[in-house]
Amino acid sequence: MRIEEFARILQSATADVFGTMLSTDLEVSPPFENPEPFFEAEVTGFIGLSGSFRGYVALHASLEQSRDFTARLLGVELDTIGSDDELRDAVGEIANMIAGNVKRELVRHGGIDISLPSVSLRARSAMSVPDARGIVVPLTDYTGCFHVELVVGGR
What we know:
eight-stranded antiparallel sheet; 3 helices; 31% strand
């Protein structure tokens, strides 16, 4: 698959999740290839991919954006989000839904499985996939710009 197709899949998967689960329309900026893991985030939700494609899907956002995403996902006021566990659960679930949508598209090209979510609350979290290609899609909602990333090796 061409990297442009991966970008289209990732954009669509993310817009669907944010539109459906967070009632938010997203503005999409041009994607960029990124052969190195993306580091610009305080909060990163990872979902591993295995099978015909190996790699990961990641959601990268600031702590404040992640708190806002959590409140919207849970349908509560922002000031009621009090624990890192709530934030980890919500960001992990958002990343999981995005990865599920990506999987639905990639499975047409071979078997693929996704892992359970892992969420890091550190500014420099990364996974490494040898011989992989990465695409990062900048997205903006009323909280500002955040990024989703798809890194794949294999096919």
